[in-house]
UniProtKB/TrEMBL annotation, chain A:
InterPro entries: 2Fe-2S-bd (IPR002888), 2Fe-2S-bd_dom_sf (IPR036884), 2Fe-2S_ferredoxin-like_sf (IPR036010), 2Fe-2S_ferredoxin-type (IPR001041), 2Fe2S_fd_BS (IPR006058), Aldehyde_Oxdr_Iron-Sulfur (IPR052914), Beta-grasp_dom_sf (IPR012675), TAT_signal (IPR006311). Coiled coil: none annotated. GO terms for molecular function: 2 iron, 2 sulfur cluster binding; metal ion binding; oxidoreductase activity, acting on the aldehyde or oxo group of donors. This is Xanthine dehydrogenase YagT iron-sulfur-binding subunit.
UniProtKB/TrEMBL annotation, chain B:
InterPro entries: Ald_Oxase/Xan_DH_a/b, Ald_Oxase/Xan_DH_a/b_sf, Ald_Oxase/xanthine_DH-like, AldOxase/xan_DH_MoCoBD1, AldOxase/xan_DH_MoCoBD2, AldOxase/xan_DH_Mopterin-bd_sf. Keywords: Molybdenum, Oxidoreductase. GO terms for molecular function: iron ion binding; oxidoreductase activity. This is Xanthine dehydrogenase YagR molybdenum-binding subunit. SUPFAM superfamilies: CO dehydrogenase molybdoprotein N-domain-like, Molybdenum cofactor-binding domain. Signal peptide: none annotated. It holds the Pfam family Ald_Xan_dh_C. Residues 15-121 form the Aldehyde oxidase/xanthine dehydrogenase a/b hammerhead domain.
Amino acid sequence: MAGSVSRRGFLGGAAAASVAGTVAWAPGRAWADPVPPARIRLSVNGKPYELDADPGVTLLDALRERIGLTGTKKGCDRGQCGACTVHVDGRRVVSCLTLAITCVGKNVTTIEGIADGDALHPVQQAFVDCDGFQCGFCTSGQIMSAVEVVSDRSVHTDDDIREAMSGNICRCGAYSNIVDAVKQARGEK
Amino acid sequence: MTVSLSRVESRLKVTGGAVFAADNVATAYGYLVTSTIALGTVTAMDATAALAAPGVLAVYTPFNPLKLFGYGDNSTDETAPVLQDNGVRYNGQVIGMVVADTFEHARDAASLIAPTYDVKPGNVDFAAGVATATPTSSPVAEVLAPGVTSIDAALAASDVTVSAVYTTPHQHHNPMEPHAAVAVWTDDRLTLYTATQGVMNVVSHMARALGVDQSKVHVVNPYVGGAFGGKIGNWAHVPLAAAAARALGRPVKVALTREQTFAVSGHRPPSHQTVTLGAAKDGTLVAIKHEGVSGKSQSGPSMENVANQSLTTYASPNLHVTRAFVPLDVSAMTPMRAPGETHGAFALESAMDELAFKLGMDPLALRQKNYAVKVPNSGNPWSSKHLDECYTAGASAFGWDKRNPVPGSVRDGDWLVGLGTATATYPASRSKSTIKVRLQADGTAVVSGTGADLGTGQFTVFAILGAQALGIPAGSIVPELGDSSLPVATPAGGSTSTSSNGPAVLAAADAAKAALIAQAATNPASPFNGKTPTYANGMVSADGVSMSFGSLLTAMDLPAVEGTSSLPSGTTKGYGYLSFGAHFCEVRVNRWTGEPRVSRWLTVIDAGTIVNEKTARSQVLGAVVMGIGGALLEDSRVEPDTGRYAGANMAAYLVPVNADIPHVDVQFLNYPDTVFSPLGARGLGELGIVGVAGAVANAVHNATGKRVRDLPITLDKLL
């Protein structure tokens, strides 16, 4: 590596060589100069956080790897499983498909932020009572979804609950118990 | 006495406080590079661009490997250690790792690496290899009645026979927690936080891989985000994280992406089964011939002996089972929930339904007619068997007598409705287990061992059994597991956790009580010194004086007394040990679209003592849900040209979501199996999935008249 070669110029050459030598489907590409880190100010569970990160950082990775709130889980990183569900301004979102920088000026709520001190949120208590989980890995996302579903006036029947909770996969298969937990939290049990 | 206790770790799991492997802190992140061909060699991996990318600390490839020793012989791990040669044995094999200061930097730099390959044609088509399958080292198991010359002779002499081929696809565990490892070295000592079903398995295999003494490796993993067999193996990311952390002198975190888990972390092999049943006109089975072929990866030893299910399920004077495999250039296989039994029971239970239909007999009555009073392939008695009660109690609760035997005759609007049943069986066994009970001066008791709680409820089982044995509230028990520094208990696998660790908890509690009493009688500071104290319900008493063990320890100025007990593996010879169950389900198939939906479910379980009804019910519920996934949804296709799992994500590899699952009812008979163990609990984690796909297929037939013998039962097969 010649030290005098600029990163951009050098990498452009490397990319061309790499493409020529490639037989598989994944071609090499140049590393575009990275976007400089952005100052991202977030409000999470009512507390301010400030981080310098690539604007491409997801809310999920910002929460887990930079802020240290690891209760929100990464199950698929592409919006298919719901394990990373959090609330942004009171609405559930999958944080793996939400860029942290788009949450500036909004209120982010995670599983760590819904209990009232030592008193569990009624949905958390219902999940305990109804055994709405086994391994617990999808549970943060399930509960964050359920908190919204409990107050969703368009949800009436058990089938409505099942449909509304179907964005959150539970491979342990606690679904019947999750439906029971949502019903308990709605005051129906 | 039925106990139904919420999980002791519930609060941590509903508040986000349970620390899973990837939740541990590292200062560097590894991102894996995987192969895109099925077979061949990597001829070059230009890492120049990746090394120059922002934040990159190192790039490891077969041409710049981290040294690892082989550790995978004769185990559930891959045979060859990662990066130690440039061979590609399957698509998705780990062929490199980028380590960077952030996850994003590592991921982005990994995308800059473009391997070149020398490609060879891979053998990835299971179906194409069935005709020339390789027999295993134990290719046939057979029982023939006196005077019968062959299984085919027995079948030929039967009044009625049915014979059909049943096929099942590759399936993937897909625990919600993708495998992850965080490796932290302090001088020459490694602490490894890694998602595993058994921390001691990690210690022994990673010590070998890294070339260090086992005493230098500490594995910590109290919370496991589901596993189902897929976290027995030490997959490529584990030694890579550890070796990279050692090389770089900083903690390294490596988490598989969901896509990577499909190839990197094992899966259930496909099967091809031919089942031929012969029976007398009254339904009495004369012969069962079950020919099983499993896929087997060239990269690991695991496969499934699917046909074995027919050796022990139904009474038949003639049994014949074969075992063979198709070697495939696909990723390593590994046990997945009831490995062998799940797919084997789909074939056998479907075949029984086909026989019942041909005989014009109720399918439940056929099962009862061929009830195995003794173990079919040995003649031994069962340790305990109440499957007959599962059948009758289930039939009554489910309303089986309302089943219309004529297929396609029950309609509810646009839906054709059918009922199906199947038998569940799963072997019970006990492994060696050492448990420690530590009575502490604060009145609590720690129950500890290296076992795992994958969501199974093992923490709570420790608490309940410790509480029962010590006569104190479960809330006073501190259960500890998932840490290699604890006494070596049984890991999670083969449904042996509670069956093995449970009796050891009881024995260790007795040892702790004995140690306490000995101290009480001899310690000069003990008020019971020189007396013969006794222990009951947390209190030590003698001569009308009583003290709690906490107060006594405080009086003696002791922080704790401990008792440790080791129980051996194995059970009394001469018995058959199985857990049993009966499934009943209602399926609806749309008349116009063919869409199948499970609408009602009941499973009745005979698994011996149920330690905690609440978590046991969840285990069975979850197993049924996974079984419904296998019956209706789960289907991993291998791309012929590349050997790639074409649907390696959760939008393409469908597992059940909430809307796919009706209310599932689970009942337990709860008869202690005291031949099996003093506790009488046989094990539960896998039993519930066995037979589910058969019950669904049978209900689909009853609803539509269509017999689907190829899983999953998707709507295209019903149109």
